[in-house]
Amino acid sequence: MNKFHVVLASSFTLASAASAVNPQMGGMMKHLGVEMHGGSMLHIHVDHSVPTPLLQNYGHAYDAPADVLNDTMYNAQYGWMIEGFWTLPPNATIWIEQLDATPGLQVYIGGTMMNQGTFAPIFGTAGSSPRIAWNGTMLHNWYAVTTPGVYEATYRVYLGDANGLPLPGYFADEVTIEWFAQGPCQADLNSDGILDFFDVQAFLGAFSAGDLSVDFVDDGVLDFFDVQAFLAAFSAGCP
């Protein structure tokens, strides 16, 4: 192979690598720490230092298996993790069960950001089981929607046997988590392609005037949740 062919092949390889886009987590990790109290009671601790995650469409097309996120607004900031030092009782499995969720919320199995997971449907998505067995390693699942709004999901974490039946003598815990879903760069209110003071000024003016064009959570009223959603969108930046 002569020098020209080597350069051409190298350029093609680099171009192919550059065209491969991986899904984005969406922001800082927001951990759901699971700890054991008193040897029998599970407790879920939510990291409230990280704002409510924003489901966004970044305008990319992903290769399989991540293509389930194509044409959706998605996020993977929430991460299950073990908190503290405790061990499972013999023959016990940690189960995470989705008890309820806003219609339209799709969930796919994730992993860490080094290993983004298989993107297989979970928690009722595409007819999957509402619960998964968790091995205790950090787990950032992928949440995706196609319609703007506020989304919630409620989970129960418990100790069970290999079939998911709860173990007697151990107590579960529940948690509800939420997201805001918005279209691309919704915080760019003056449509100049950048996020700056003028967008903040435009939001405040519209909010004060009762203009529902800044109803960021799409619930028909202007309140604190719209302010929170605007700030989250502004902080996330434009795709």
Q: Can you tell me about this structure?
A:
With about 240 residues, the chain is of the alpha+beta class. It folds into two domains: about 20-180, Immunoglobulin-like (Sandwich); about 195-235, no CATH class. It is about 20% helix and about 30% strand. It contains three helices and eleven strands; from the N terminus they run αβββββββββββαα. The strands form three sheets. It has a five-stranded mixed beta sheet with strand order 3-11-10-6-8. A three-stranded mixed beta sheet has the order 2-1-5, with no helix packed on it. A three-stranded antiparallel beta sheet has the order 4-9-7, with no helix packed on it. Strand 1 and strand 2 form a beta hairpin. The relative contact order is 0.17. The model is unreliable at about 1-20 (pLDDT under 50).
Task: Quote the beta fraction.
Answer: 25-35%
Strands of the largest sheet, in order across it?
3-11-10-6-8
* Structure annotation, total helices: 3
Low-confidence stretches: 1-19
User: Average pLDDT across residues?
Assistant: 88
CATH architecture of the largest domain: Sandwich
Helix/strand/pairing class, anyone? alpha+beta
Overall spatial form: elongated
Helix content: 10-25%
Evaluate the radius of gyration.
Answer: 21 Å
Query: How many separate structural domains?
Result: 2
Q: CATH topology of the largest domain, what is it called? A: Immunoglobulin-like
Main sheet characteristics? 5 strands, mixed
- The CATH class of the largest domain is identified as Mainly Beta
Distance between the termini: 41 Å
